[in-house]
Amino acid sequence: MPRPFPLRLRPRRPHPLPSSSPRRRRRSFPTRAQPHALDPISRESPAFPREALAAGIDKGVVRARLSIDASGRVASVEIVDSQPRRVFDRAVSRTLSRWTYEPGAPGRTTDVEIAFDRE
Known about the structure:
This protein is α+β, with helices and mostly antiparallel strands. It has a domain of 68 residues: TolA/TonB C-terminal domain, CATH 3.30.2420.10. Helix content is 11%, strand content 25%. The protein is built from 2 helices and 3 strands; from the N terminus they run H-E-E-H-E. It is elongated.
């Protein structure tokens, strides 16, 4: 059965809180540990990949996020961004997994940027 008049919805307006009532605070739950700047104890630089040389690529940048365990070893390497894409990722992942940091709390993360330049 058709409606005799068109249905109109009005936008809902928020009700103002009385001045005597406390404001509600929103709970914020961290979804992921925020990366901190950590200095590695031992580090090495990745070698320039042969595949990049064969493709004629002479520059690149890779940003990676490292997860560090309680003993200071790198538990995982996540490539966040790379330019050009996927050319230097394997070399960076292998090299960064050998870096070590000061022992501390498990689950620490840090962001690292590696620049490649074939000069």
